[in-house]
Amino acid sequence: MPAHDLPRLAGIDEADIACFRRDGFLVVERILAPDRIEALRARFPLLFAGKFDTGIYPDEWYWREGMSLPDVTRHMANAWKADLTVARLALSADIGRAAALLAGWSGTRLGQDTIWWKAPLTRPIAHHQDTSFLDVLDPQATPTATPARWNMRPARTTGRSRRFRRSSTASTTIAPICAPPPRPLASRRRSR
């Protein structure tokens, strides 16, 4: 099972890196071809119905078809273990290279993948950061790639479907494709 090649991520240049470090995120459009998006889209209902093509359960699985309330956002962690289609994206070396380049690191490893499936008419969800769960890291930084699995359209109320704010150096989210690592743990302690 080869991981996805994502050539649009290879086009990240110095201007993108500067934008990323200034704003805390970098949007890279169309990193996934339509057929790959469709393949992922088709797998989500099966995953949350407990149909794992590898036979291995994900590490976390919140929302189960027929058991959970229909208006709750679905969530799964490390679905790559359970599903080969998700694994092809989560294990892409191109995502790791892009995250390392943007964060100024020599390399990266996958810590976890997380699926957030906000189906129509589900309740709102708050911003999520994984760093609060990974306090063993020094520096405490977790670059995050967030590919949308649908075309993003403006929301009726806000005029946009996703909002991104410039982040402080304490931000850890690398969204849609990647945020600056926070200050090293030692320097954060000194500033308190």
Give a short synopsis of this structure.
Strands 1-2-3 form a 3-stranded antiparallel β-sheet, with no helix packed on it. The chain is built from 5 helices and 3 strands. The protein is globular, with a radius of gyration of 17 Å.
Comma- or semicolon-separated keywords:
mainly alpha, three-stranded antiparallel beta sheet, 5 helices, 3 strands, disordered C terminus
Task: Walk me through the structure.
With 192 residues, the chain is mainly α. It has one domain. It is built from five helices and three strands. A three-stranded antiparallel sheet has the order 1-2-3, with no helix packed on it.
Topology:
Elements lengths: L13 H10 L10 H15 L11 E3 L11 E4 L6 H7 L2 H11 L10 E4 L67 H6 L2
Antiparallel strand pairs: 1-2, 2-3
List the secondary-structure elements in sequence, H or E: HHEEHHEH
Adjacency order of strands in the biggest sheet: 1-2-3
The shape is: globular
Mean pLDDT score? 76
Count of individual helical segments: 5
Number of domains: 1
**Low-confidence region ranges:** 152-162, 164-192
Percent of residues in beta strands: 5-15%
Query: Count of DSSP E strands?
Result: 3
Q: What Rg, in angstroms, do the CA atoms define?
A: 17 Å
Main sheet record: 3 strands, antiparallel
Q: In terms of structural class, how would the helical and strand content be classed?
A: mainly alpha
Give the fraction of residues assigned to helices: 25-40%
Q: Alpha-carbon distance between the termini?
A: 47 Å
